[in-house]
Amino acid sequence: MIIETEWIKHQNHYEDYLELEAAINACQEGIYICDADLKCVRINSAYTRITGLTGNELIGKTSTELEKNGTISKAVAVIVKKDRKVVSLIQKFRSGKNVLVTGTPVFKDRKLFRIVITARDLSELSQLENQLNAAEERSERYLRELSLYKEHVKSEKIVANSQQMKTIINFIPKISKADSPVLLLGESGTGKEVVARLIHETSYSEESPFIKVNCGAIPGDLLESELFGYVKGAFTGASEKGKPGLIEIAENGSLFLDEVGELPLKLQVKLLRVLQDFEVTRLGSTKSKKVSFRLICATNRPLKEMMEKGEFREDLFYRINVLPITIPALRERKEDIIPLILKTTEKLSSRYGTLKTISPDVFKILEAYHWPGNIRELENVIERIFIMTDDQSITVKDLPSNIAADKVSKETYTLKEKMQIIERDIIEDMLKQSSSLREAAKKLGIDASTLTRKCQRYGIIQS
Fold first, then answer.
1. For residues 154 and 295, is the Cβ–Cβ distance under 8 A?
2. What CA–CA distance (Å, rounded) separates 311 from 265?
């Protein structure tokens, strides 16, 4: 019975040994253990990987011997035994590796029993530090970009439910890494300026200027002085101090040329020279100045057709068309229509302090409408309905007649909706042709009171 008990104890000790051995070898740090006489009794596989030394070279040898034969530069175990405390130092091995080692004394009955030395490869630590720094930089950049996108969604600057707009949004971080010119194409009212500002804010800090110039709203001669600036006495009426141009003011920021297709040919030549040399010369001056800015252009005109007609310079087109982005018309991104309506309604509710809801039938009609004026038209229509409607709920009768009667969208209506649209159109037309409501009612063959009720139902204003 005693023999059996001792055998069980022996088995338990052996299992504990195997478990300890597995744990030591699983450790990614190098482990070197020596006894009180500084003789190496065990190392793990990580120690061999880090130092290049094997068990055959170390087991049974003392730290003093290893230091004398040049295997290690300085024996940390000798210092630990002397000072009886934890010691760390940089140890150079015969392989040429520099390793950070830490020796820790282990006591038994207050006497030194073992010294456990851990080893960390400095090159691995340096590599991990570099990876950590790179990861932190990426994390900060992603958080900055995510914060920017959340800010834009929150402030209703951009809606991207459709796949087309999501593709554009995903493209912007790539653009922000470069300073190449961007050309925004698309119909009027699609939100080109909104995208231009998003590109700018993703590329630069808050302090960097965003200078917008509407090339179609400023006469050619005035536009030249606005863009390039002038010196004292450059022309009659010029300021005595001179004036920097908008190109100079856009330094280290973005210059947004809206309606760039309206830029006169003479200014196209001068702009091309600026983009080629990144130098600007003020009117009346012979001295040029170095400039640095990101150019963003936008147009709803067909620049390629204009090139063929000689209305737009080919060399300038290829200079500004480095990163083209075509913003789709609202009718091509119908998934964005309802979110845009909701955001516009929310903004108006906040502005006027009145909460209004929109009926499902209205959403259906507005989503089917072709929106020739795109987002600008949609926002104007919603604001007009919001202001003119007395009720808290916006219904079909509140819609403008041109939208309600749109032939393209009629096929999506129910029979009742179609009848309401037709009836409203007839009433509005008859009122325009008549001098009074009573006359219109007589022509329609109904009572004046009936016509009054119908006008109220459809939100028709009686003159």
1. no
2. 7
The β-bridge partners of 115 are 34, 105
Q: What's the average model confidence in pLDDT over 316-328?
A: 95
CA distance 143 to 149: 10
**Residues 101 and 77 sit within 8 Å (Cβ to Cβ):** no
Least Cα distance to 251 among 284, 279, 226, 218 occurs for: 279
For 207, 248, 284, 363, the CA distances from 153, given in Å and listed in that order, are: 21, 32, 46, 21
Mean predicted confidence (pLDDT) in 425-440: 84
Q: What is the largest CA-CA distance in the chain?
A: 124
pTM above 0.70, yes or no: no
Helix residue ranges, H only, 286-414: 303-308, 314-320, 337-352, 360-368, 374-388, 401-404
Average pLDDT over residues 329-356: 89
d(CA 80, CA 104): 7
Nearest to 59 by CA among 78, 81, 35: 35
Residues facing 90 on adjacent strands: 100
Per-residue pLDDT tens over the stretch 6-19: 444 455 555 666 77
